[in-house]
Automatic annotation (TrEMBL):
Keyword entries, A-Z: FAD, Flavoprotein, Monooxygenase, Oxidoreductase
Name assigned to this protein: 2-octaprenyl-6-methoxyphenyl hydroxylase
Source organism: Marinobacter aromaticivorans
GO molecular function, one term: oxidoreductase activity
InterPro entries with a match to the protein in the record: FAD-bd, FAD/NAD-bd_sf, UbiH/COQ6, UbiH/COQ6_monooxygenase
Family matches, as Pfam families: FAD_binding_3
Cofactor: FAD
SUPFAM superfamilies for this protein: FAD/NAD(P)-binding domain (SSF51905)
Amino acid sequence: MTHSDTSDTCDTDVIIAGGGLAGATLALALARAVPGLRVTVAEVFPLSADALPASYQPSYDARSTALAWGSRMIFEELGLWQRLSEHATPIKRIHVSDRGRFGATRLDASTFRQQALGYVVDNRWMGLCLMRELLATDVQWQAPAEIVDMTPSEQGVSVNLKTGDAISTLKAHCLIVADGGRSGLREKLGFQPDHHGYNQNALIANVTTSDSHGFTAFERFTDAGPMALLPHGSPSRAGHQSALVWTLNDQELEEVLAMPDSDKCRRLQDRFGWRLGRFTRIGECNHYPLTLTTVDEPVRPGVALVGNAAHALHPVAGQGFNLALRGLMTLVEQFRLAAEQGRSPGDFQILRRYQALHRPDWQQTVQFSDSLIRIFGHSLAPVAAARDAGLVGLDLLPGAKRLFARKAMGTGGRRAVINGPATSDKE
């Protein structure tokens, strides 16, 4: 008997809690790779095909995500990249430097015979592209609806779904929690996240500079914390707009938010320097406290955490969503193998196998991101001199630079291949 046998009393095979970028990508990947699997997405925001615009008009204040080259390959496998690339700004170069010191390293896509090291894509555009594809699949949506509780059942899980004031029950073989870390569902289900605060906040905004970004991303480490400027706007023209991630402590954040835009630009100029000329405009500012969050055991029988629900990183290295994507593809690979073997997607052995395969990637990525913040957070002269020497050495040693580039580009680690046998990037 398989999990899709006629004696199966489950309403669906997999319920995904959260229809954001992680949940929607997982749903689409499952529809592509395991078409026989019944997938239901529960999302708190309403969804309607009528709400999808006929054309996309980018907004200056749009929030965006940095996609590594490896993430582009994943979206290519999902058949999504051709449309996504219409509004994806390439990152052709990365410049990493220590503000006010001599240390710097540079990565160039041409060195690695790639079109780009990564891309910057508006979150809304990514969401619209995913929705268009999903509406053409058999994925079922419960929206607006919220999963408020779950209990184990004989065949997997029984989920309580709240729609307005009504509570209904759905039985499934597996629940995937993909709603980030803020809903509280993770904690309701008894998972124990480990939080490490950086005593810093991320201020996110789009900015305009007098000089063109030249498709270069800047990672700038300062005595007040790291900042990043990512090329944003046109996919083909090197414009003057960049996406800013600015790290500030509580007092600095309060001061900056209270400033008029002209003063914000001056403060930013003082922190970043003049590599992009003068800052002439700053858009709507969003902010959130920075915390490294990990869940050591993100799976249990019938339940798995993915994306920010399982791990949330400091954003300055741009690794969070790319790590999540690689994890999603690893999970898809295991679900496909389970389907081939006639096993339930909620089988604990299947979920533990997913965890074992994904764990080395998230451990290395967490260590990489966290160590950048810790190393560049020290202002002591010996530490500063050592990291400057490290940046220069990284710039001069091809082998070390290739390893650094491989991490930045998100290549390596396992991912599902939608058409054909599962492989690793390392093969």
